[in-house]
What we know:
Elements: H1 11-24, E1 30-33, H2 39-49, E2 56-58, H3 60-71, E3 79-81, E4 94-97, E5 114-118, H4 125-130, E6 135-137, H5 145-155, E7 159-162, H6 167-175, E8 180-183
Parallel strand pairs: 1-4, 1-5, 2-3, 2-4, 5-6, 7-8
Helix pairs in contact: 1-2
Amino acid sequence: FGLPVFRHGDAADEVSKLLHSVAVFPERAHLVGAYSLGKAQRVIALMRAAGYDAPIYMHGALERITGYYLQRGIALGDVRPVRLADRSKLGGTITICPPSALNDLWARRFPDPVTAFASGWMRVRARARQNGVALPLVISDHADWDGLTATIAATGASEIWVTHGQEDALVHWCTSRGLKARPLDIVGYGDEDEDAPTEAADA
């Protein structure tokens, strides 16, 4: 997220948008795309912290890792496998799933679903529209522009090598402050995208 446009605000505010949508559209299912390791569980924890105590359903691809969190004593409340539910009756509920499942046949079995995606990339509205996301949630576990620049300043380093992302912007920021900086090109590194991983869309 090495561009000034990427500034991640309070994740609690993003979750409040989701919960508001559930309250406004009680007849519609809400599907939230979130990566299975860490992000999905963080989103669930944020909803619980906001006072949402209804059951939260989860896609089959999230069951194992979420179950591990629960076994380790992480309080996530009532979390249920969606495969055991009648999806046609899940209006007014929230289901967490891999981002790849949002546009899959799997998602069409829910009543008039509202699709959400928890990702730092959702700061760019065009990307949200491109992915067919109705409710973008800017929630990221990565450093944003302010986090990157603050870290550079905190290190006291006089030379910065930048990789992964928009190197030019961060290199420019560094050189405008008298720091020596250059992009570090590693073959194959940076080819992945935060919304590129595909996870099995089975429930």
